Amino acid sequence: MKKLFLSLALVSLLSACTSNTQAPVASPAAQINSSTSPAAVNNQNVVTMQGYAFFPATITIKAGQTVTWKNADNTIHSATADDKSFDTGTFDQSTDKTVTFSKPGTYTYHCSIHPMMKGTIIVK
Questions:
Q1: Hey, which end of the chain has fewer CB within 10 Å, N or C?
Q2: What is the pLDDT of residue 31?
Q3: Residue 61 and residue 81: Cα distance in Å, rounded?
């Protein structure tokens, strides 16, 4: 019984250490939504985070459309605009974040934890 209690306490502690505490930030040009629903994953504008890279690295959409980032790595990532116009906050593996882009423009972004990860959203 003591081993079970210690195991549960360790799992609880580890879960607390890996939770997402960063709040998403968005400008009027972008709206951020959290999602783990299959509908978000089936969105045609999906960027997968895998192998410490964004795939595809560049995506073109129309104003008013969304981009869904799907974290397929075993570490936390973010999609953070270089100009700070949007920031998904950090999120774990098997979690999605969706951003709606309302204004045309080119939005370059990176992972705030792994800055070598870079991508571009072109909104027409």
A1: N
A2: 59
A3: 16
